[in-house]
Amino acid sequence: MTRLQRLLLVLGAVVALTAPLTGTAAAQPAYEPNDSILTGYGPLANNSSYTAALETGNDQDYFYFYVTSTSTAQLTFTVTNLGGGVGYEPSFSAHLADSHGNYVESIENYIDPADYATRSVTLSAGKYFVVIENDYSSEYGESYRLDVSGTDGALGDYAVIAAACASATAPVSVYLAQIGAAEEKLRKAEAKVRQVRYSRKRRVRRKAQAKYRHVKAVLAAEKASLKAAEQGQKPWCFIPA
Length: 241
Description:
241 residues, Jelly Rolls, six-stranded antiparallel β-sheet, 3 helices, 6 strands
């Protein structure tokens, strides 16, 4: 191969590497984009492993999961630093956050290359995130593996939450309709009391007042039942998808 041929070959390779992609998008690393609670990857499954990397110094990886237990569930998280990052022993930290991104509990800080951390926690029903982030922005690129496991309902499906919300909402709808009917009856009973207020027939006045008190008591009972039913919607109807 002549010198000119070798030069043309190198130039062709450079053009091929720098030419823009047409018709296809550049492949995203596994589970990306997952850099916020809005783009987090999930839901995580029970007894599963996820291998990813922190590509940049400011990278944060979010993985979400649902706890669907009616009481509490036990979960175990193991995070392993697989190494391969840039800098002197690049380490990262991992913690749990709630559905708003608020800190819940640490898994571990400063997980060094070839090291790992395991943490078991108890959580109630809700949506949560595992957040993994670099300890120092100047040290990054390390790969990691996230292992998750738990008891029944620890890493469930959102369909369970949606079904629980629908079941809890059914009586709320019933009580709202009954309250509407009771309020209408109360208005009529109140109007009747005003109508017969000056009646010479004491029996008529007492009957109207008794009816009013009865309807008012029924309305108060319906409102109390509604309040109790609304409590049953928690937390299911307040867990985001």
